């Protein structure tokens, strides 16, 4: 099924910084097909019927419960949706697979186990395995007959994955690799049947191996006692002269980093999808609570302070969702283009995800932080009850926290956002220099504060264009001033990454609004307009602060003053009554009793 809207004008990775996208070319959630919506409903029903009633039992790590849920999900095709039909999957497109991740995201610990199985637990074999390896494992992983896990992290190698100490040495007869070492924080380890394990051949060549449960010399530690996602099986694993068949090398010797990092690109986007599903679920239970909890002889949902919170939760969810599916379509389109060019299945999707690695990193940060914001405000609206285990929002609060650490910490992903963007520029994949020089020239000219464009959303379009200029101004000057020292100025890099994330999400939200308005008219999209204008109003302030902190970190004197004036010009917004806009949004949420945007 081809869900691409229009591949002619698709922007390449990180090109959003220097090129505009047409609303007609952007995929939005309102573009989902009937089939996609049916699949989403099936996944949501699965969570409601099979997972939500047993959340407490899952948290107690009831023996066999999580594997049985994965078995049931496999029977419904939810585990193998994105796997090729010839390998036992359903062969669904990337957008549909993302939608399933979102729908299952409200399943707390189950969502983590499922995502680990279908993502990092299976994809390394699907994308890098030999034909024999794929035939042996993928059909069973797709059905749930086998459960997958991924073993990369070690006690002294987290973000610095390549510093792993686990070793692999070829046996004298050449038939086995002898593994020795330790892995920690391995999701699904308590029940997984097959593990993708990373080790250094001869202590040097970082390599992936397929390791089966029951291999002599391969043992598990006890279950970890975690702050959240308590129902997710997390154990340390140990290798003591474990013999792994030589044919279980995954990919090429010394090329394990290609597997680790490419799989993470997809994993970051999928984590955003799951976080989005969790955020929607948490908002729904919070709305329900606010409508029924009475204080001062009326529901607390009537109070402006609560309406502000509910609306802001919805606004951030809507904006995050928009950026997620915009990127999903870009990856889907690129995959189709690479397949049409003769690339193999695995090369096509990996290549597409690599193309948009910058966007995947930004989504991971945004999605995890939107979820954290939503559950935090959810607890606040629940008041003292939010601190009680009897209310699901307390579980959501604890379960959320890991997402800012999973799949590369948010700090690492912020640093990667700018690092990968600059590398794309150095390789000639995007032209940052020309527009950056243009912005510098504009700073030296007399500013034009007029806006003769009276077309729909002209002011919003101009603001997005100016936010991009703010990024180019700040990043360009930092690169010129600091040169090779820039990579060690992590605070500045993270400031600029925050500017980029805010701008990408803001632009995505505006594009969705414009497309919706063109389809349905202004009166039918007035609340979406409230959401976008409120988000843009606040995003401009956040971009201004991040830019100011960055500029103050490397510039001084006249240069600093000029840049700060330029930054202020580029983040200027027209007055907008966000209070009333949020009240209108909240009234819709309260009337519907749940998030329905």
Automatic annotation (TrEMBL):
Gene3D superfamilies the record matches: Acyl-CoA dehydrogenase/oxidase, N-terminal domain (1.10.540.10), Butyryl-CoA Dehydrogenase, subunit A, domain 2 (2.40.110.10), Butyryl-CoA Dehydrogenase, subunit A, domain 3 (1.20.140.10)
Domain Acyl-CoA oxidase/dehydrogenase middle: start-end pairs: 149-241
Boundaries of every Acyl-CoA dehydrogenase/oxidase N-terminal domain copy: 33-145
Swiss-Prot/TrEMBL keywords: FAD, Flavoprotein, Oxidoreductase
All residue ranges annotated as the Acyl-CoA dehydrogenase-like C-terminal domain in the record: 466-569
Cofactor(s) the protein requires to work: FAD
Residues of the Acyl-CoA dehydrogenase/oxidase C-terminal domain: 254-416
Keyword match Flavoprotein: yes
Sequence similarity: Belongs to the acyl-CoA dehydrogenase family.
PANTHER family, alphabetized: ACYL-COA DEHYDROGENASE, ISOVALERYL-COA DEHYDROGENASE, MITOCHONDRIAL-RELATED
Name under which the protein is recorded: Acyl-CoA dehydrogenase family protein
